[in-house]
Write a structure and sequence with these properties.
This protein is about 35% helix and about 25% strand. By secondary structure, it is of the alpha+beta class. The protein has 4 domains: about 50 residues, no CATH class; about 60 residues, no CATH class; about 70 residues, no CATH class; about 45 residues. The chain is elongated and about 100 Å long.
């Protein structure tokens, strides 16, 4: 029986890299890479049948994360139709898509998919053509001062990485410092927080992000707050001294400085 080369093919979250050997029973195994970056050998039969679609790690087993990454969507093909047995103003919006890891054979093929199905999988609707550029969401600040990113303004690479590591909130936002720290340290262990060493919450440079406890994080921000209070009091003191000196000299100090310049 001729061996079918699976190199380059994708099965769910897995991409086949090369043939890796054979099992004791003579079954061919293939080296596969998951979207999370992990590589492992898997039997070809398990891939083609659809029994294995992830590397098996807990983060990739999560149904919502798997579905969100697995969906293939052509946002340029969409249609709007009246819903059955509904008022005329109630419309059904669909897009051309498929889910290769779905248990339903029809869903694994390209078909018209209702927008509510994508919403349940955690995928936000995207605008097509020129309108999509105007609706890309730029980074913004939270009430606490942290930089947040929206999935519509992120690269596809960052969106997939954030999905696998569960960094998105329900409204599609991701904190930039958590995303960067997750890449730097290879994940965010439980019971740890991302610290800003200099206390500036909007400074997300690599050397400013550290992992630590909540107590250490509070200490960082308290230190930054005390420094800000100190320099603010120093500024007010120097401003009062300057005003007093200006009043004594009748503004002559400003004239002398101007003349000297």
């Amino acid at each position: 029986m001729q061996l079918i080369d699976l190199t380059g093919q994708s099965f769910g979250l897995l991409t086949v890299l090369a043939e890796s050997g054979r099992t004791r029973n003579g079954k061919v195994t293939w080296l596969c890479r998951c979207v999370c970056g992990k590589e492992k050998p898997i039997r070809g039969g398990e891939l083609t049948v659809g029994n294995i679609t992830t590397c098996g790690s807990n983060q990739c087993k999560t149904t919502r994360a798997r579905q969100r990454v697995a969906w293939e969507i052509d946002w340029t093909k969409r249609r709007t139709q009246p819903r059955d047995n509904s008022p005329k103003h109630s419309l059904r919006v669909s897009v051309w898509a498929r889910n290769p890891i779905s248990k339903t054979s029809s869903a694994r093929e390209w078909h018209w998919t209702d927008v509510s199905t994508l919403k349940n999988a955690g995928i936000l609707w995207q605008l097509s053509g020129k309108r999509s550029r105007t609706h890309e969401r730029k980074p913004s600040l939270t009430k606490q001062g942290y930089v947040r990113l929206h999935r519509n303004g992120m690269t596809a690479d960052d969106v997939a990485f954030a999905d696998i590591n569960h960094l998105f909130s329900k409204d599609g936002y991701c904190l930039e410092h958590r995303l960067k720290a997750c890449r730097i340290y290879g994940g965010l262990p439980s019971h740890t927080v991302v610290r800003h060493w200099n206390g500036v919450k909007s400074d997300n440079s690599d050397d400013n992000l550290l992992l630590g406890t909540n107590t250490e994080n509070i200490a960082d921000h308290n230190r930054a707050r005390l420094l800000a209070m100190y320099w603010h009091s120093r500024f007010r003191l120097l401003a009062r001294k300057y005003e007093a000196l200006k009043k004594r000299t009748g503004g002559q100090l400003l004239l002398d400085v101007g003349d000297a310049a």
